[in-house]
Specification:
By secondary structure, the chain is an alpha+beta fold. The chain has six helices and eleven strands. The longest helix has 14 residues, at 85-98. The two termini are 17 Å apart.
């Protein structure tokens, strides 16, 4: 079982981990159950963010703005790789002051054509994972995908309430509810979150 948990001090989500019995597919649980244009400049955005900032015309911009679904063209103002919670907070303050919307796509899932003029934030650099098998929890950063957690939890006979693809990020999946192959036995992924 994976218990998703995030706290502000370590920029993580913690999710309940479940003991998985492959023979019965049952586990043990301690419980049963807008589009706007920026008024700021690219230089001012670069002065705010500590992570990589890419603007139209920069090398790597097109690749960075491209979502997992290649059929969607995201016309964003900038792509920023947030490095920690302080970086994310600075980006939000900048966006609020400049009147620019912010969209977060940790690894490119959740593509949208409605991102014209937004700052697209990637969180893949925030990739801390700690598995506590005794407590049955995984502490994960907002840039972590399910495949990584499953690879670390599996040797201990544990699993998270993961989706069908290991490349999907835990945060977005869980915030969307998180319907899993394991949901009949363990509920939705969002129900396993203990701390954000």
């Amino acid at each position: 079982s994976v218990d998703s948990m995030t706290d502000s001090s370590s920029n993580v989500m913690v999710q309940r981990l479940w003991h998985f019995d492959a023979a019965s597919s049952r586990g043990r649980s301690p419980f049963h159950h807008c589009s706007r244009r920026a008024t700021g400049s690219g230089d001012s955005l670069r002065s705010v963010a500590r992570g990589r900032v890419l603007l139209s015309g920069d090398a790597g911009f097109d690749a960075a703005r491209t979502p997992w679904n290649l059929a969607v063209d995201q016309s964003v103002l900038a792509v920023v790789d947030a490095v920690d919670a302080d970086d994310a907070a600075a980006l939000i303050a900048y966006a609020r002051k400049s009147g620019v919307p912010v969209a977060v796509q940790p690894n490119g899932h959740g593509a949208s054509r409605a991102l014209d003029g937004t700052i697209l934030v990637r969180t893949s650099a925030m990739d801390d994972v700690r598995i506590d098998t005794a407590a049955g929890v995984a502490r994960v950063g907002p840039g972590v995908s399910w495949g990584r957690v499953q690879a670390l939890a599996g040797p201990a006979g544990m699993t998270g309430v993961a989706g069908s693809s290991p490349s999907v990020g835990i945060t977005g999946y869980t915030l969307g509810g998180g319907l899993s192959w394991f949901s009949r036995a363990y509920g939705w992924a969002a129900q396993s979150v203990t701390v954000f």
